[in-house]
Amino acid sequence: MTKETESLGRAGLRVTPMGIGLAALGRPAYIALGRDRDLGDDRSVATMRARSWAVLDAALAAGIRYVDVARSYGRAEEFLAGWLRDRAIAPGTVTVGSKWGYAYVGDWRMDAAEHEVKELSAGHLRRQLGETRELLGEHLSLYQIHSATVESGVLDDEAVLGELRDLRATGVAIGLSTTGPRQGDTIDRAVETGLFDTVQATWNLLEPSAGPALARAYRSGMGVIVKEGVANGRLTAHAAPPALTTAARDRDVSPDALALAAALARPWAGVVLSGAASVEQLHSNLTATSVGWDSKLDDRLAALAEDPRTYWAARGSLDWQ
């Protein structure tokens, strides 16, 4: 893993080409294929905290300087805050991005009927920002709308936008994450507002449709963060398509590394997130930084791309494991 740091978008956030996301580590259940094999049966708070800290330690040692959390990731913000205190990490050493909009309601149960609830109101923003700041304090560098869509109306909600402008005035960068088959429309609308410093979007070999809009956002001055680069486990050894498995074998890397290398090769990608649930997975993901991606691989793997509606329908059908 290169320890080179770069400036992310007009906000000038100091980041590294790969970051670490705690979506899979802050709660006992998550939508990721192979999670039962990755984590085993012990999903106690103490065990998940220890696992989170081990992955964060490994990420820091590898040079990673961007960490992604959210209010809905169970205890992810709490785990990160405890790690930052215990390791005596000064604000600014690691760039921390969090998100508001979903609330975790799973009560640390694997069999919860519902794990998270979405509400993109100004009141919810104020409540969740207070909770985030109580935990992360001066470490918070970026605050994002979680899974914004055009249909939600959040990008035209003046009460929400006003709250975000006020937050931005305090020195915290403002961003959004996107979801669904119309990510491109959401990204273009965010660019039009002129408010957002960053966008975090799903881009992977199965779902590359947001690429042109992300290029436009990048040209407008926004930093781009890539999430779900391994498609919730569909581009890992657990379920990789034969074409990816063969190409990875030819390059002597794992399927997850090759999938993440594809994202790293996009000229607009500022940070590509690893969602590793273990130190071993993190190390496998990080080999992506040494893969020599080229146009031959683009051509070879282009056929993996799915219709966005098909991709998002499949994602929505994944079980919480």
Q: How would you sum up this structure, described in words?
A:
The model has no long low-confidence stretch (mean pLDDT 96). Helix 2 (45-61) packs across helix 3 (76-86) and helix 8 crosses helix 9. The strands form 3 sheets. Strands 3-4-5-8-9-10-11-12 form an 8-stranded parallel barrel, surrounded by 6 helices. Strands 1-2 form a two-stranded antiparallel ribbon. With 321 residues, the protein is α/β, with parallel strands linked by helices. The protein contains 12 helices and 12 strands. It is globular, with a radius of gyration of 18 Å.
Concise summary:
The protein is of the alpha/beta class.
Summarize this structure as a short list of keywords or feature phrases.
321 residues; alpha/beta; TIM Barrel; eight-stranded parallel barrel; two-stranded antiparallel sheet; 12 helices; globular
